[in-house]
Design a protein that fits this description.
Blueprint (H helix, E strand, L loop, with lengths): L6 E5 L11 H13 L3 E5 L13 E4 L2 E3 L2 H10 L10 H28 L1 H15 L4 H20 L5 H23 L12 H15 L6 H8 L1 H14 L1 H53 L11 H6 L3 H7 L1
Parallel strand pairs: 1-2
Antiparallel strand pairs: 1-3, 3-4
Helix pairs in contact: 1-2, 1-7, 3-4, 3-5, 3-6, 3-7, 4-5, 6-8, 7-9, 9-10
Length: about 325
């Protein structure tokens, strides 16, 4: 089928200004976007009903693809690969850096999302359980945890948590530093136009940068690589502006509401006090004015002999006798 007809890319939902939170989905979205060809995003909250019960799924006529490499090969066949125009040396570099990211950064990301207890309990599991319908919201998180364990066990021979974390974070930080050096001051990895390497880097870094992790150790290292942070923001704003703008608008509105709520709470005791004082002053003023103009008069008390006897104390009464 001609690429004049749009491709359909079925992905996990997005959040935090990203079109999807899943890095495999983001890789394909960025790759197809960088190719310049039209496509449509279909958000899926339950991959159970897809052909392989996984996401992403890319369809174009009778062609159906389930992973990044398949889509990349298809775009090459159609002569719309974003790597078109790279030299032989640059193509080799592109493959080498892509392999490095997969080997050194991906295991750490799997650990951060699915095996770190704080992140899993405070972010990952609640997010997926909210998005995925019952009862599949019990199945898929456990499946992803199992996949993450296999990935980490394949690269870590040690058994203690601290040793595993040290190795994963060390490899990932070195990888991020290498990517930062490669990018330098350029807009994209190989110059002014994005390539497949930019798609891979964006997919791996964007969720790491944007998600509100409870344990942000690697996220903090990424934030120290300012050019990588700018790369993620540049791709979000240029190629996925609707998601980026919607999130920024939502965040500003939430900030305004939070400030208004804070102001109301802080003014509450002073406002209540001032209202009571003002009411009392007004009451006294109106009462005094009413007495002054004769609108209100004090009651007349008639006294007689028996009334007076009532006010004598026993002691005084005895003295008079």
């Amino acid at each position: 089928m001609s690429l004049n007809h749009p491709m359909i890319v079925e992905v996990w939902p997005g959040d935090w200004g990203l079109p999807s939170v899943d890095l495999e989905c983001l890789k394909i979205l960025a790759l197809v976007k960088f190719s310049g060809k039209e496509f449509k995003i279909k958000v899926c909250k339950n991959p159970y009903w897809t052909p392989k019960s996984t996401l992403p799924v890319v369809s174009h006529g009778k062609h159906v693809f389930h992973d990044y490499d398949e889509v990349m090969s298809y775009l090459r066949i159609k002569n719309v690969s974003p790597d078109h125009g790279l030299s032989t040396v640059e193509e080799a570099d592109c493959l080498a850096y892509t392999y490095m990211v997969k080997e050194k950064l991906f295991p750490a990301l799997q650990y951060i999302w699915w095996l770190d207890e704080k992140n899993y309990a405070g972010l990952t599991r609640p997010w997926y359980c909210k998005v995925i319908p019952f009862p599949f919201n019990f199945y898929y998180p456990q499946r992803f945890v199992s996949d993450a364990k296999k990935t980490v066990e394949a690269v870590c021979e040690t058994e203690t948590i601290s040793e595993i974390e040290n190795k994963l974070y060390s490899d990932a930080e070195k990888c991020l530093t290498s990517l930062s050096v490669k990018l330098g001051e350029k807009d994209f990895m190989f110059g002014s136009h994005p390539t497949s390497l930019d798609a891979v880097v964006f997919a791996y870094l964007a969720p790491l940068l944007k998600a509100p992790f409870k344990n942000p150790i690697l996220q903090n290292h990424l934030k120290s690589c300012t050019n990588l942070q700018k790369l993620v923001s540049r791709i979000c704003q240029r190629y996925f502006p609707l998601d980026y703008q919607a999130f920024e608008h939502k965040r500003k509105n939430e900030g305004i509401k939070s400030n208004l709520s804070s102001d109301v709470d802080s003014d509450y005791p002073h406002k209540t006090r001032n209202t009571i004082v003002a009411a009392l002053i007004a009451t006294f003023a109106m009462t005094g004015y009413a007495f002054m103009v004769g609108l209100v008069q004090p009651p007349m008390i008639e006294r007689n002999f028996y009334d007076e006897d009532v006010y004598y104390s026993g002691e005084n009464y005895e003295e008079e006798n």
